[in-house]
Structures are given as structure tokens and as C-alpha cells.
Specification:
By secondary structure, the protein is mainly alpha-helical. It has one domain. The protein has 2 helices and no strands. The mean pLDDT is 88. Keywords: Bacterial flagellum, Cell projection, Cilium, Flagellum. This is Flagellar hook-basal body complex protein FliE.
Length: 93
């Protein structure tokens, strides 16, 4: 039976801490922009419905719920990140 040996080759695509921070910051920015876009779309569709334009009520409700859920998820992620930061700050050094 053949034994498995750990690979001795080094990964060729190392990500520096700076690149990882940039990638995370970019991902976070894109996510927040997505939440903002959902809020704007919901507001626009609601205004169209109020003004009597040709928009279906169910489309307005779906856009509203998408915006609400994405904002709630964003707030929960923020809360968890703050909790993690506070926990790290409480750790003895």
C-alpha cells in the first residue's frame, strides 16, 4: 500500500496581507453598494406605484422585501463583526 506524503512544493500564488485586506475591503464595499442599490430600487418602485405608473404591486413588494432582508443581513454581519472585535479586545495579551 502506498503511503501519502505531504507535498513539499510551496504554493506559487501567495497572497500578501496587504492584498487580502484590499480584497476584503473591495468585497465589503461591493456588498454595501449592493444593499444601497436594493434600497434605491425599492424606493423607485414604491414611488412609481404611488404616482400611478405601470408597475405591479407584487414587484414592488418583492423589491421591498429584498431591500429589507439585505439590510437586515448587513446589520447582523456588522453586529457579529463588532462582537468579534470586542471579544478580541478582551483577550489578555
Amino acid at each position: 500500500m502506498e503511503q501519502l506524503r505531504p507535498s513539499t512544493t510551496q504554493p506559487t500564488n501567495k497572497i500578501s496581507p496587504y492584498d487580502a485586506q484590499q480584497n476584503f475591503a473591495e468585497m465589503l464595499k461591493e456588498s454595501i453598494n449592493g444593499v444601497n442599490d436594493a434600497q434605491i430600487q425599492s424606493d423607485n418602485m414604491t414611488n412609481k406605484l404611488i404616482n400611478g405608473e405601470n408597475v405591479e404591486l407584487h414587484d414592488v413588494m418583492i423589491a421591498s422585501e429584498k431591500a429589507s432582508i439585505s439590510l437586515s443581513l448587513t446589520m447582523e454581519i456588522r453586529n457579529k463583526a463588532v462582537e468579534a472585535y470586542q471579544e478580541i479586545m478582551r483577550m489578555p495579551v
